[in-house]
Design a protein that fits this description.
Helix content is 66%, strand content 5%. It is mainly alpha-helical.
């Protein structure tokens, strides 16, 4: 988690996404996606000049985008030093999983009568399986996040989607620190498929039970792995 300066040159490819409506919200969407992808890793400082130049936006627009992402806990402003991608604490990781358990289990519990619209979940499971077969563990991680985003989307609530979009982006900050993504993500491919099959069978109650255990196990595994990396970073910096 060594501190460094982010290289923003690759953002020039995202400039076309801004179109004619170059707003702080559009800029924050781009930066949020890049943070979630690990393009800007935890602890790195974001340069106003390089990012603003790459995206072709004003300093004021960029600062507003930074403010929005700081509010989402993805960035942190350090006085007289600049804006940095946030480094999560163990307590942050625990709180993220509390939020996930509350929201995701409630979504499954409130699904109503089957059949459910499960194409998005099925696609995420297929993507994860393909990435694992190709030994692309970052792709497995991405497919896993997509699975849970699609699960939340079953609620049909734009507000819930927006809340969880930030939660999942914040979760990726922890994933990027862990040095063994295969051990972290591969076991959940089977469990994703099991939850999907249970929902396909119309048994939302059983799917909720599977999900609750899944999230508890995932929390414990990530906290252990993340804690080890934090400890290693502290020893290296001492």
């Amino acid at each position: 988690m060594a501190e460094g300066m982010a290289d923003a040159r690759g953002l020039a490819d995202d400039r076309a996404l801004l179109g004619r409506t170059s707003t702080a919200e559009r800029v924050s969407d781009i930066l949020r996606s890049r943070i979630a992808e690990g393009y800007f890793p935890p602890g790195v400082r974001l340069s106003e000049d390089s990012i603003g130049g790459a995206l072709g936006v004003s300093r004021n627009t960029l600062r507003e985008a930074f403010r929005l992402l700081t509010h989402e806990r993805l960035l942190v402003h350090q006085l007289n030093r600049g804006v940095f991608v946030r480094v999560l604490t163990i307590e942050d990781v625990e709180d993220i999983y509390r939020t996930r358990r509350l929201v995701e289990c409630a979504v499954v519990r409130g699904l109503g009568d089957p059949p459910f619209a499960l194409d998005g979940l099925a696609s995420a499971v297929a993507d994860g399986t393909k990435a694992a077969r190709e030994r692309k563990w970052k792709g497995v991680s991405t497919a896993n996040i997509h699975f849970h985003r699609e699960l939340v989307a079953l609620a049909g609530s734009a507000r819930t989607d927006e809340v969880m979009r930030s939660v999942f982006a914040e979760l990726r900050l922890a994933f990027h620190v862990v040095d063994d993504p295969r051990r972290l993500h591969e076991p959940y491919l089977v469990r994703n498929r099991q939850i999907l099959q249970t929902l396909q069978e119309g048994d939302a109650a059983q799917a909720e039970q599977l999900l609750a255990v899944y999230l508890d196990d995932s929390r414990r595994g990530l906290v252990e792995a993340y804690g080890q990396r934090v400890a290693e970073g502290e020893r290296a910096g001492s």
